[in-house]
């Protein structure tokens, strides 16, 4: 007699033959843990923090259409926004306005209890009349599944809002924004800054990278472009600020984040002696934040 073994996806819990998860998601946390751990590099006199996922934007589709008007009438007003009769405005939206024309907007908070400490994600979800949806503000892979399950529960709890068999499909990470910091090893590192113009020149001249910098920008930072290791035509943006704060944005997977993280740390570490300088104004600025 042949023994059958049930294999389920460790992320969504479905049988593997029913699972639609991106296989890269299974190793997402492992890749970041193994490649993006902050250390104190005594040899190069620098220390840097672990990578931190600040937000992920997810796109997905519902398998059934939803009566968004009925859904709006059944949910608390303070958690949703929907005005199907409005016309598309010709006035450009203010930067930071998290809303889309003709979308049903819902804001929810989720807790990933598999993390220690727990990770809270304040998520803005946008549902469109054609069944497509987008969610921003997610901080962990597990939160994606928590969000999708809770969203289905909310929608199906409203009678006649949709088909009871509704589910989600084509769930994809559209964009990941992550960050970390790098500083020289010194008793009080707050006032130490990066020489951005020098670093930009090193990136361009020594590493043949596409990098720009303007000291006149509102938030002056080096904009470094690094080619994706997964999608040959896609470039990841690495924003490097004089305080040592670094943002990696535009990646869709952990491998690209790890590649960017290791590259920029390698560059700064190997040139650390000539890249850091002290600025009293920066120290005062950092102390105010504390």
Automatic annotation (TrEMBL):
InterPro entries (UniProt xref): TBP, TBP_dom_sf
DNA-binding as UniProt keyword: yes
SUPFAM superfamilies (UniProt xref): TATA-box binding protein-like
GO molecular function: DNA binding
Keywords: DNA-binding, Transcription
Any GO BP: DNA-templated transcription initiation
Record's keyword annotation contains Protein biosynthesis: no
Any Pfam family hit: TBP
Family stated for the protein in its record: Belongs to the TBP family.
Protein's name according to its UniProt entry: TATA-box binding protein
Organism: viral metagenome
Higher taxonomy: unclassified sequences, metagenomes, organismal metagenomes
């Amino acid at each position: 007699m042949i023994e059958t073994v049930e294999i389920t996806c460790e992320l969504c819990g479905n049988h593997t033959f029913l699972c639609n998860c991106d296989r890269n998601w299974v190793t997402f946390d492992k890749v970041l843990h193994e490649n993006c751990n902050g250390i104190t590099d005594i040899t190069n006199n620098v220390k840097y923090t672990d990578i931190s996922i600040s937000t992920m934007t997810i796109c997905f589709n519902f398998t059934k259409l939803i009566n968004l008007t009925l859904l709006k009438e059944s949910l608390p007003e303070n958690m949703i926004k929907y005005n199907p009769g409005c016309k598309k405005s010709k006035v450009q939206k203010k930067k930071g306005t998290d809303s889309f024309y003709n979308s049903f907007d819902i804001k929810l908070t989720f807790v990933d209890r598999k993390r220690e400490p727990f990770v809270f994600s304040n998520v803005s979800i946008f549902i469109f009349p054609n069944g497509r949806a987008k969610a921003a503000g997610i901080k962990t892979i597990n939160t994606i599944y928590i969000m999708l399950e809770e969203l289905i529960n909310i929608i199906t709890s409203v009678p006649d809002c949709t088909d009871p068999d509704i589910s989600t499909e084509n769930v994809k990470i559209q964009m990941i924004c992550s960050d970390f910091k790098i500083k020289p090893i010194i008793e009080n590192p707050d006032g130490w800054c990066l020489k951005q113009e020098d670093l930009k020149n090193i990136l361009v001249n020594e590493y043949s990278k596409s990098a720009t910098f303007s000291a006149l920008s509102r938030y002056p930072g080096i904009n470094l472009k690094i080619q994706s290791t997964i999608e040959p035509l896609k470039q990841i943006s690495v924003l490097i600020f004089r305080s040592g704060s670094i943002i990696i944005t535009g990646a869709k997977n952990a491998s690209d984040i790890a590649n960017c993280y290791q590259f920029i740390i390698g560059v700064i570490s190997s040139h650390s002696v000539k890249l850091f300088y002290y600025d009293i104004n920066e120290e005062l600025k950092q102390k105010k934040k504390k």
